[in-house]
């Protein structure tokens, strides 16, 4: 792909990108309904059971039949990963890096077909889908190159000052063992591929479980790793529900570490389980967000409204980084609302595989149910619905999970200002000044992303006081969304993350390793 695709650049793609996506989509649609397997110990294999999955765009469209693992197969994958660990750990840095870069190349070769499948499975528009697939390729390449730059985290230290002896010292980082990766449904390719790449390049073996709502994306990632030529057992792919298969992996005695992306409640249960064994084991939990945007009296309202709409409604608000709270200075709130309503009205909603549609359906039946429940609550506790809060079921939309993008004005004490809804719903509260705005923005147990629109002085105040791991200022491309490997490290504060280290940051890979101090006296 000659066009550099990131979440920040995807708003003005070349015409050829759409031609190639349409061709790939036709090919993917021709193969709908196929059976898809697991991948254990270097082999594709049937599950103990299988289930049919349908598209959230249109429930009449059968995506395929997907294998489901049972506990015995989860145990088999763990034992295969354990058996492969010694050999994979001993594999040279150069060979591990080569294999990761091969995965990146394969993903890029398949970027259009994988993105077409993502659109059908998750309901994200073609540009969001292409962005996610390219981001995954960038994760594999970024982590490979970072591990090379770090020289495998092997550092020579000064000799001890011992008379009559030579005391050689080194610090060496070593992999833990079998690493479990549990991915979410909203970014089922990138938020699986990123931690899989990090665990593998650092010498761990991997058992990866896809989200049960999005097994196709997981299988397509497994295809890329299989075809890259990893040794048997180094990477294993499972599909199954979290309460059985996910819990089996977390509780397994072979599990040396876990990376989980998902809700705060589930992430905290896993984090506590990993700390409660015979000894603590690492858990990288990337959890929720209740992300806020501050719009000051000095803001460019056109730019602010553009960024708010993109971050609140992109992918139906089903991003942990999605904007859900706006704190607007009372002097500009009416003008901002007018601008927002105009932009919401202009959104094209429909089948997201079509070029003209920007907003597709929500991804799951559970999300559709939650949208209805929240729509009722939004108008209570002093809330005033300004747009949306209704299901879209006209014509072809009736066959999918389509809902209206929703804007609500509410007082600061409305209970939904504190609940992560994970839907295309944004709530706005008028404030008297930036100090009140920052106080309310920080009044959350979560702290993933945040944005601000205002003067240079406003931005300085915002950056100094905001409690969030990923921050944006005056960004029309997205008020709180759009991080990309190598450009914006992505990780949360407080309840949004367990480590304080961000994805694709200077510090991320070291979390998959433990340090060993080595002293040899000659």
TrEMBL record:
**The Aldehyde dehydrogenase domain, residue ranges:** 53-514
| Catalytic residues as annotated in Swiss-Prot or TrEMBL | 286
**GO terms of molecular function:** L-glutamate gamma-semialdehyde dehydrogenase activity
Q: Which InterPro entries match?
A: Ald_DH/histidinol_DH (IPR016161), Ald_DH_C (IPR016163), Ald_DH_CS_CYS (IPR016160), Ald_DH_CS_GLU (IPR029510), Ald_DH_N (IPR016162), Aldehyde_DH_dom (IPR015590), Proline_metab_enzyme (IPR050485)
Reaction(s) catalysed by this chain's protein? L-glutamate 5-semialdehyde + NAD(+) + H2O = L-glutamate + NADH + 2 H(+)
- Does the entry feature the keyword NAD, yes or no? yes
Q: Where are the transmembrane segments?
A: 176-201
State the pathway, as annotated in the record: Amino-acid degradation; L-proline degradation into L-glutamate; L-glutamate from L-proline: step 2/2
- Look up the coiled coil feature and give its residue ranges: none
Q: What is its EC number?
A: 1.2.1.88
UniProt enzyme class: oxidoreductase
Q: Which PANTHER family match?
A: DELTA-1-PYRROLINE-5-CARBOXYLATE DEHYDROGENASE 1, ISOFORM A-RELATED, DELTA-1-PYRROLINE-5-CARBOXYLATE DEHYDROGENASE 2, ISOFORM A-RELATED
> Hey, which family's this protein in?
Belongs to the aldehyde dehydrogenase family.
Q: What is the name of the protein in this document?
A: L-glutamate gamma-semialdehyde dehydrogenase
Q: Taxonomically, what lineage is the organism?
A: Bacteria, Pseudomonadati, Pseudomonadota, Gammaproteobacteria, Lysobacterales
């Amino acid at each position: 792909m000659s066009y550099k695709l990131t979440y920040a650049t995807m708003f003005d793609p070349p015409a050829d990108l759409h031609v190639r996506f349409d061709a790939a989509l036709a090919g993917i649609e021709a193969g709908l309904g196929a059976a898809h397997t697991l991948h254990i110990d270097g082999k594709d294999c049937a599950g103990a059971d299988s289930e049919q999955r349908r598209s959230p765009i249109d429930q009449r469209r059968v995506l395929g039949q997907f294998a489901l693992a049972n506990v015995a197969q989860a145990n088999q994958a763990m034992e295969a990963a354990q058996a492969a660990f010694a050999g994979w750990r001993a594999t040279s840095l150069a060979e591990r890096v080569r294999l990761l870069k091969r995965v990146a190349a394969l993903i890029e070769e398949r970027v259009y077909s994988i993105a077409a499948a993502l659109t059908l499975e998750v309901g994200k528009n073609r540009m969001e889908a292409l962005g996610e697939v390219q981001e995954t390729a960038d994760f594999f390449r970024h982590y490979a190159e970072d591990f090379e730059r770090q020289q495998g985290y092997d550092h020579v230290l000064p000799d001890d000052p011992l008379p009559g002896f030579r005391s050689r010292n080194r610090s060496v980082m070593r992999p833990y063992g079998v690493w479990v990766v549990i991915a979410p449904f909203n970014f089922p390719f990138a938020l699986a591929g990123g931690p899989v790449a990090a665990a593998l390049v650092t010498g761990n073996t991997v058992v990866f479980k896809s989200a049960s709502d999005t097994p196709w994306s997981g299988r397509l990632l497994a295809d890329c790793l299989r075809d890259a030529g990893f040794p048997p057992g180094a990477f294993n792919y499972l599909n199954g529900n979290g309460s059985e298969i996910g819990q089996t992996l977390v509780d397994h005695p072979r599990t040396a570490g876990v990376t989980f992306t998902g809700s705060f409640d589930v992430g905290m249960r896993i984090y506590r389980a990993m700390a409660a064994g015979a000894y603590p084991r690492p858990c990288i939990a990337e959890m929720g967000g209740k992300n806020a945007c501050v719009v000051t009296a000095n803001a460019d309202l056109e730019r602010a409204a553009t960024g708010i709409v993109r971050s609140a409604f992109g992918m139906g608000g089903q991003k942990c980084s999605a904007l859900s709270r706006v704190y607007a200075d009372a002097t500009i709130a009416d003008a901002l609302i007018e601008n927002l309503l105009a932009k919401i009205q202009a959104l094209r909603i429909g089948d997201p595989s079509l070029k003209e549609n920007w907003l597709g359906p929500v991804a799951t039946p559970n999300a559709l149910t939650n949208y209805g429940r929240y729509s009722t609550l939004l108008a209570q506790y002093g809330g005033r619905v300004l747009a949306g809060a209704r299901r879209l079921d006209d014509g072809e939309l009736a066959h999918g999970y389509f809902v209206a993008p929703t804007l609500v004005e509410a007082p600061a004490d409305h209970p939904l200002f504190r609940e992560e809804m994970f839907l295309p719903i944004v709530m706005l509260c008028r404030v008297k000044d930036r100090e009140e705005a920052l106080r309310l923005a920080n009044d959350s147990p979560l702290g993933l992303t945040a944005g601000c629109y205002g003067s240079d002085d406003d931005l300085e105040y915002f950056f100094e006081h905001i409690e969030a791991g990923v921050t944006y200022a005056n960004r029309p491309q997205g008020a709180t969304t759009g991080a990309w490997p190598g450009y914006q490290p992505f990780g949360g504060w407080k309840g949004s993350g367990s480590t304080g280290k961000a994805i694709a940051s200077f510090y991320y890979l070291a979390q998959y390793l433990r340090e060993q101090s080595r002293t040899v006296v000659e």
